[in-house]
Design a protein that fits this description.
Blueprint (H helix, E strand, L loop, with lengths): L2 H16 L7 H13 L3 H33 L8 H8 L24
């Protein structure tokens, strides 16, 4: 056992100790005890299985995050229905062009000219 594996086992049992007082289903507890009578060394394989599955889940989660990050950086905002035509007719940089003139906001009621 490597020091890292020892740490994983210790961490697992620390997590399990935190739920030691949690309520238990009597039928499930009985089935587990029956299973341990049939396979008294099953705890060894169960700990190995839990740790390998935990490692696999961490790797899968890291890969998902990597793919989501890559996808987010590749995606450019999709344009609307008219964007491709605007690009063709007005050129790529058409952000300052508009058919609607800039109009100042209306004056408050007391400041309107008569």
């Amino acid at each position: 056992m490597t020091p890292q594996e020892r740490q994983l086992v210790d961490d697992l049992f620390d997590r399990l100790a935190r739920v030691e007082g949690a309520p238990r289903d009597a039928d499930a507890a009985g089935a587990i005890q029956d299973g341990l009578r049939k396979a008294p060394n099953a705890l060894y394989a169960l700990v190995q299985t839990v740790l390998v599955q935990d490692e696999a889940l961490k790797r899968a989660n890291a890969r998902i995050e990597e793919l989501e990050h890559a996808q987010a950086s590749e995606q450019k905002p999709s344009g609307g229905f008219l964007d491709s035509m605007r690009d063709t007719v007005l050129g790529k940089d058409n952000s300052s062009r508009s058919s609607v003139p800039n109009v100042p906001p209306p004056l408050p009621a007391g400041n309107r000219p008569v």
